[in-house]
Amino acid sequence: MKKQGLLILLLTVVISVLAGCSSSGSKDGKLVIGIDDKFAPMGFRDDNNEIVGFDIDYAKAAAEKMGREVTFQPIDWSAKESELNSGRIDMIWNGYTITDERKEKVLFTKPYLENSQVVVVLGDSSLVKLDDLAGKEVGLQSLSSAADALSASPIKDKVANVSEFPDNVLALTDLKTKRLDGVIIDEVVAKYYMSKEPNTYKLLDESLAPEQYGIGLKKGNEALLEELQKALDEMNSDGKAAEISTKWFGENKVLK
Questions:
Q1: Which of 124, 128, 170, 216 could form a disulfide with 165 if both were Cys (CB 3.0 to 4.6 A apart)?
Q2: How is domain 2-112+214-249 classified at the CATH fold level?
Q3: How many CB atoms lie within 10 A of CB 209?
Q4: pTM of the predicted model, to two decimals?
């Protein structure tokens, strides 16, 4: 009976280990990518409620080169690293800014896109430069690089109040209804909405901080990182990355 019990215990451990490997996405060919599905044009829902965007096409093309299936999982962006480290997603891939603080939590690919944090105001606003935000109401996405950029700027101590939102869409909605005077947001996102609603918004003359986007993977997943980076490098070489970038931005903005 003791031998039988030991055998059952060993089988249970083996099954648990195999299940853990399967959930990681690195063993069964499937990848679960965590996204903010309101982050146009990187990843968002179109009029048919389909998830689309530059990062969506970019990830699909990379997964195809890797011979893997890909699933996009909308997540609470403020809990993105927790989602990754828990194993519920395999990658954070949706305009994810590389920072020193985040490097301590996740593995990053090489940067693939340049960006900056800018301030969007209404088209008829009298605000022109960053100092004009003194005494004003400002909004941004919670636990985003916009918050980091504001914290690093002297203007933070001059604004009247900073409101945090689950996503940029809600922040821009409050701007349109004039509950906010400005929204700190990624430049690529700002320009997308400015193209969709001409004359509704404008940017302040000064930006807050330059930055770069990368793809985040769980610490210890170096093999998957190497596989992914190889696919991204191939996409740069064969023109696939340029094709996707031109579709969404009208030019090749992907870094080599």
A1: 170
A2: D-Maltodextrin-Binding Protein; domain 2 (3.40.190)
A3: 17
A4: 0.83
- Total residue length of the chain: 256
Residues 39-75: pLDDT tens digits?
Answer: 999 999 999 999 999 999 999 999 999 999 999 999 9
Domain boundaries of the chain, sorted by first residue? 2-112+214-249, 115-211
Strands 209-213 and 201-203: unpaired
The CATH fold assigned to 115-211 is: D-Maltodextrin-Binding Protein; domain 2 (3.40.190)
pLDDT digits (tens, 9 = 90+) for 181-203: 999 999 999 999 999 999 999 99
Token pair for 55: 């990062």
